[in-house]
């Protein structure tokens, strides 16, 4: 009888790991503590619940590293990407999904898989025996976090994630706001009008910044330090870094024309992205926040078009833990001191839904292959998957290790191509062409080993 693979955590990484291993013929037990044990951010007991944004970011696999990671996961028949494609929403060049049907389908497909057993149970220790993948993500339970810290001999590293509010579409004043994707990006009219835009004059922007800075904020507990991942900064933290920071970030006015006032260029623009298939909910793009609930309502209603906004969910902030993977994990995502245990997802020090699912995909395949007696090499360094896993398991500087999104800075340079902005499109296409070839070869080799 084949040894079972135990996976702890039913988020993006754990769900993908379970699917990959089961599809390879390995019996999987997926341990998910929800809904028996809840968390601050989750609303349901569904697997692969999206707790922050509903976006998987860029779907461009020719000139974008995230899009290339999408391509690699699709090529590997990834559960997360194939399900996301079935529930995608208009989002310009991004892949956004209807979050509840997406999670419901992932849950149904895993629970109906003949090789998968889902157990609602909290795991609080690192087992000495058996094959395990821990994919508990940013909301690892305190008990398990302490067990990981004891096993690794290292203090937990932590930063804070913030989530953005969601607005009821019917409460947005479309006499002020308008629908348009930045630079009219998208192949269909629906894609080109995927975002709702709220314009601000200079005076409105300055008053908004003043209110952000003065608003009541969530206080941290004693001993906690407010280190944030730069890709998920609360808007008030960005505002503290300079009054123009938001206008050059999530509130940049470029690539947009207000049809209500076509001759007047907005000083700043707040964008909202569709959050469900019905188009009844929109999330405020880039507006992660740690403001208290009462402050959020009053401050966000200062945004033109949102004066009467009603909120389906307000923003919040939660602790996120991750390993110092360069010192603790090998290139197979195994804990060096306990090689029967692998880690996957955000706890390894990757950031974002896509990256988390990608590490789950890789961990699931590597663990299953090991159980089946056909161990695989790790992902090729020239693939997006390989570039990311190389960074977190050895390429990054351990002393300054912080969570990382996939990006072309992690890729090995292509010889003969110029650097700088002028040559970047050619360079990016060279990266993705090479990555596709490397990933195809790895998948083909894995298939031959399985034959």
Automatic annotation (TrEMBL):
What Pfam family is a match, any one? GIDA
User: What molecular function terms (GO) are annotated for this protein?
Assistant: flavin adenine dinucleotide binding; tRNA (uracil(54)-C5)-methyltransferase activity, 5,10-methylenetetrahydrofolate-dependent
Keywords recorded for this protein, A-Z: Cytoplasm, FAD, Flavoprotein, Methyltransferase, NAD, NADP, Transferase, tRNA processing
Q: What's the main place this protein lives?
A: cytoplasm
Q: Which GO terms describe its biological process?
A: tRNA methylation; tRNA wobble uridine modification
GO CC, alphabetical: cytosol
Q: Which InterPro entries match?
A: FAD/NAD-bd_sf (IPR036188), MnmG-rel (IPR002218), MnmG_N (IPR040131), TrmFO (IPR004417)
The keyword Transferase belongs to this UniProt entry's keyword annotation: yes
- The residues forming the signal peptide are none
**Where is each MnmG N-terminal domain found?**
5-374
Which catalytic reaction applies to this protein? Answer: uridine(54) in tRNA + (6R)-5,10-methylene-5,6,7,8-tetrahydrofolate + NADPH + H(+) = 5-methyluridine(54) in tRNA + (6S)-5,6,7,8-tetrahydrofolate + NADP(+); uridine(54) in tRNA + (6R)-5,10-methylene-5,6,7,8-tetrahydrofolate + NADH + H(+) = 5-methyluridine(54) in tRNA + (6S)-5,6,7,8-tetrahydrofolate + NAD(+)
Q: What is its EC number?
A: 2.1.1.74
The UniProt record gives the binding positions of FAD as: 9-14
Compartments, as annotated in UniProt: Cytoplasm
Q: Which family does it belong to?
A: Belongs to the MnmG family. TrmFO subfamily.
Query: Which HAMAP family does this entry report, sorted A to Z?
Result: TrmFO
Function per UniProt:
Catalyzes the folate-dependent formation of 5-methyl-uridine at position 54 (M-5-U54) in all tRNAs.
Q: Which PANTHER family match?
A: GLUCOSE INHIBITED DIVISION PROTEIN A, METHYLENETETRAHYDROFOLATE--TRNA-(URACIL-5-)-METHYLTRANSFERASE TRMFO
Name of the protein this chain belongs to: Methylenetetrahydrofolate--tRNA-(uracil-5-)-methyltransferase TrmFO
Identify the species of origin: Rhodosalinus halophilus
Which gene is annotated as encoding this protein in its UniProt record?
A: trmFO
